[in-house]
Prior knowledge:
The protein is mainly alpha-helical. Helices cover 71% and strands 0% of the residues. It has one domain (10-383). The longest helix is centred in the C-terminal third of the chain and has 33 residues, at 269-301. It starts with 9 loop residues before the first helix and ends with a helix.
Amino acid sequence: MVKTSSSRLHVVDALRGFAIVSIMLLHNIEHFDFYYTPTNLPYWMIPLDKGIWDTLFFLFGGKSYAIFALLFGLTFFIQSDNQGKKGKDFRGRFAWRLLLLLGFGLFNSCFYEGDILFIYAIIGFALIPVAKLNNKIVFIIALILMLQPFEWYNFFIGLRNPDSMMTNPVSWAYFGKLGEYIPGNSFLVTVWGNLTNGKLGVLNWTWENGRVLQTASLFMLGMLAGRKKLFVSSDESKLFWIRTLFIAFLAFIPLFIVKNGLSHWLESEAIRRPLITIFSSLSNMAFMLILVSGFVIIFDKLSGGFLKIFSSFGRMSLSNYVMQSMLGSFIYYGFGMGLYKYTGATYSILIGLGLATLQWLFSNWWLKQHKQGPLETIWHKATWIQF
């Protein structure tokens, strides 16, 4: 971490940029939520595609968004703390800021149904009632949410009726309809499908996979990290991240083993499904902490070093996130180039790396002339508009 008294935490910019790039790579191999395996790939590429797919999802699946959520809570603290020093309560302005983010999310959803901005805008309201609570109470609430109480309820219901036939998740029916509009050549039909069928599918999937409670928990933990100055370079914060890396690594191994073993160990779907959601959430949380801890430790050791390359991405995270949706949907969907038909994971990750390079060049060029990214500027100015 860069030792500075300025309000800008460079390690946070770089970490947020790292999350953006990893999200982009995942989105590309997924064809931006339109899962399709081309049939014309050479034989040797099939195992390579599988290796790339498995590796990227192991490293970043469910973790990159968790990093984003943690930093969302941190940003809330920084803004709230800055206003508190001026004697102002930020909570009302933050609510307005969330409504603006909801608008960005709806715009982004026109191109990519898997948008998280809309979801973050809704869950972000959970920060308002806990913003003035003491650290201990906030941590207890965050811990309870992270443990997925709703899924534990489903688990105990399953114990009472292990032979009950669980219906398919509601989201499956919506995702099954993607083929009705994503391959088509009409942009407007795609937009309508994303905003109606696609958005309902994603909202249901987010709840079914424990992401709602996990995200709210991470928002609160990010706020606590800000209060404890864990991203500000000090002997205490260095020790914290070293300990966190060690504990998270020890926790991840059994959690990952249990998560992968549940499908083989349990026959009852009523028992198995909620446990998989619980242990997947905890496993992803542990690995996310490994990534964050390792990143912060290396950044501090090297005074940024090669990790600074991600900083420009992070400073323009909103703009880059929306931009990748616009570009990605055009590249893979039917209304654009329709490359979903021809690209497996190998080709797609090369496209993703190319897009990341273009965004890096654009971000560096833009930030030489402007203080913030284009959408960040709009969001900032609209946040502080006087009514």
